[in-house]
Fold this protein.
Amino acid sequence: MPTSSSIAVATKTWIPKVLSEYEIGRAVSAIEAISRSDKPIAEIGSLEGLRGELESDLKECLGLVRGVDDVRYWIKPCENRWRFGFHREAWVLDALDFLDRTELAEPDRVWISGLLFGYRPTAIQAYIIRETGCGSPR
């Protein structure tokens, strides 16, 4: 839930409708990472509420970061909540949909998700070894 505080943006004041200050901070970090690096997509979180209010807050978050005309927000339904984040290229949303609907072995889901969300291959490998005890996803 957002706090009663407001955020000063340039010459206007923005009172978030659904995002907390923490979520706004994560959103700004994600927008900067996507804009300034090879990170294709970031998921900020999920929450209950009206889609329009979330959309309004995400647009405001984009306005907090200068020079990010190529970054867009995304919102996806998930039961009674909205998953949300930011992306640059349209294909990453198709890839995210693929991961959501496709039945994959967990190690395969891990490495595909890791690549999609911009993790280093060595970090993905370390996670697979830690979780499965072997050096290969299979």
